[in-house]
């Protein structure tokens, strides 16, 4: 008889069951099921595992064919899959009737089918999961057109569920809705009428998070008296004209809501969120809101800290007065021409779009991000550009600018002679350029940026989306304040220009080679001598990435 060695011992199977369950958590569910045939120990471990996940891989014949190898054809694969389904149903039944360890998570994420066998299998699994007091229930059915899975009414009476996620379902109103433990509700591509939505919301006294995405069939959404609700998302990216039902009214009266997001075409929808007095984060994206509505809403939210406004194409003028606002992002509002912000405590400002007229009383900004592009030809674009930058002269030391081409950032010489530098107090300037032309001069860009911010300490220039970058560190002679008479180019500036006060320039060029490894090169120049040399040093780095 062969003597057993240490290599023959199955150490993994001897591990405590909780550790084996933890190992399961890193495996696809199909592989978890497959471990049940390894030994009786693994079978017992599988039967007490508290997570069930059915996805497309479990139902995929090709995947099962690869698993079985050459042991059979399509019929054998089908028989194997049927045995698997029966085994899964039996395991769920055993949990339900023998009162074994309850289920933590139960997930179905599969393509919808009208096959009666499919519906029977899904319905029995859902019933067993709910009978096992499942806590997290996710039922996702990928559908085409108007087809949806008719959700069993028992789901809306699952008192043990604290997370419910539904996709591609039709909801019908049961005799009574009982979701007394529910804390998070996510509905996507769900069809439900007003009565179902009202009953559903009213049965969740502990609800904390709610998300509605592409849901149809109801006209009114009222969230009233939900004291624990703090996060709400309403998304309609694909339009809302389906089934001739349009969301007409949204009323949210929940004092503890902290985060609220509206995304999509909510045109002609009456939105009332003024009762959310503790709201701290508000996101409005692709909604058809108007100037006056936005202005009035912000004034009624005394604790608002973060505001995102994106692709709201009816906005022409944004006026915001908020002493509590700390972060403001305005992105892609094509008709926007004017922004007036009375926000003394603002710390982060992000703007993406065409040139605007900006008025601000911001005292200190930690970070500014500007992505400017020209939607139309404007002869005064450079003048507006300088005026926009001047708004940030004393409120921030760091400015990040992104433009489409180098021409958008180079200020014509004739304007430099009649206008003061907009950022005479700027310390750190970072530029990203989306499109680098063939005949690109980084020296001209640096020269223009040094006019914009005459005594900047650091500067970086890179092509958007690439790793190659040119970085500069500047030191200056003292005194830097213009005393008159020495240089005519400095007379229009509050401080002397860089060419007459530069002391030393350190250049760091970062390239990426064919192996995707970063290579850095360093140079140092005294005085303004670098102006004629940096094109030779940096053009390879920038143009190579173009």
Automatic annotation (TrEMBL):
Gene3D superfamilies: 1.20.1280.50, Ribonuclease Inhibitor. It holds the Pfam family F-box. Residues 101-266, 270-363 form the At1g61320/AtMIF1 LRR domain. Residues 12-50 form the F-box domain. InterPro entries: At1g61320/At1g61330-like (IPR053772), F-box-like_dom_sf (IPR036047), F-box_AtFBL13-like (IPR053781), F-box_dom (IPR001810), LRR_At1g61320_AtMIF1 (IPR055357), LRR_dom_sf (IPR032675). It comes from the Eukaryota. This is F-box domain-containing protein. It comes from Dipteronia dyeriana. The lineage of its organism: Eukaryota, Viridiplantae, Streptophyta, Embryophyta, Tracheophyta.
């Amino acid at each position: 008889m062969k003597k057993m060695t240490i290599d023959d011992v199955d150490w993994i199977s001897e591990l405590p069951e909780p550790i084996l369950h933890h190992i399961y958590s890193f495996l696809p569910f199909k592989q978890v099921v497959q471990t049940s045939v390894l030994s009786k120990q693994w079978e017992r471990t599988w039967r007490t595992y508290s997570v069930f996940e059915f996805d497309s891989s479990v139902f995929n014949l090709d995947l099962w064919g690869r698993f079985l190898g050459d042991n059979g054809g399509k019929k054998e694969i089908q028989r194997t899959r049927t045995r698997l389904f029966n085994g899964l149903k039996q395991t769920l039944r055993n949990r339900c009737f023998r009162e074994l360890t309850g289920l933590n998570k139960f997930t179905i994420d599969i393509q919808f089918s009208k096959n009666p066998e499919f519906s029977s299998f899904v319905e029995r699994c859902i019933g067993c999961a709910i009978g096992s007091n499942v806590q997290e229930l996710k039922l996702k059915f990928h559908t085409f057109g108007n087809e949806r899975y008719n959700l069993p009414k028992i789901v809306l009476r699952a008192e043990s569920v604290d997370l419910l996620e539904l996709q591609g379902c039709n909801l019908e109103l049961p005799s009574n809705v009982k979701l007394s433990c529910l804390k998070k509700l996510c509905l996507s591509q769900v069809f439900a009428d007003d009565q179902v939505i009202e009953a559903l919301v009213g049965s969740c006294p502990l609800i904390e998070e709610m998300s509605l995405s592409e849901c149809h069939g109801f006209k009114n959404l009222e969230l009233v008296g939900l004291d624990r609700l703090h996060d709400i998302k309403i998304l309609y990216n694909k339009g809302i004209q389906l089934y001739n039902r349009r969301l007409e009214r949204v009323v949210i009266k929940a004092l503890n809501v902290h985060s609220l997001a509206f995304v999509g075409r909510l045109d002609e929808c009456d939105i009332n969120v003024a009762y959310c007095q503790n709201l701290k984060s508000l996101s409005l994206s692709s909604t058809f809101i108007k100037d006056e509505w936005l202005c009035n809403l912000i004034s009624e939210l005394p604790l608002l800290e973060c505001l995102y406004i994106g692709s709201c194409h009816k906005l022409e003028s944004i006026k915001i007065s908020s002493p509590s606002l700390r972060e403001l992002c305005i992105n892609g509002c094509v008709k926007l021409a004017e922004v007036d912000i009375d926000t003394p405590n603002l710390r982060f400002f992000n703007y993406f779009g065409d040139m605007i007229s900006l008025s601000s009383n911001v005292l200190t900004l930690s970070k500014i991000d500007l992505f400017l592009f020209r939607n139309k030809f404007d002869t005064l674009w450079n003048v507006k550009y300088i005026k926009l930058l001047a708004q940030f002269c004393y409120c921030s030391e760091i400015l990040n600018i992104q433009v489409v081409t180098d021409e958008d950032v180079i200020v014509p010489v004739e304007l430099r002679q009649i206008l003061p530098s907009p950022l005479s107090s700027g310390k750190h300037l970072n530029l990203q350029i989306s499109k680098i032309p063939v005949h690109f001069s980084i020296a001209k860009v640096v020269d223009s940026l040094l006019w914009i911010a005459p005594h900047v300490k650091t500067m970086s220039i890179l092509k958007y989306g690439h790793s190659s970058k040119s970085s500069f560190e500047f030191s200056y002679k003292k005194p830097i304040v213009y005393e008159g008479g020495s240089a005519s180019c400095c007379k229009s500036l509050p401080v002397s220009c860089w060419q007459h006060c530069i002391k030393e320039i350190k250049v760091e060029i970062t390239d990426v080679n064919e192996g995707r490894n970063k290579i850095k090169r360093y140079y140092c120049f005294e005085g303004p001598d670098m102006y004629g040399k940096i094109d030779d040093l940096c053009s390879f780095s920038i143009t190579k990435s173009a």
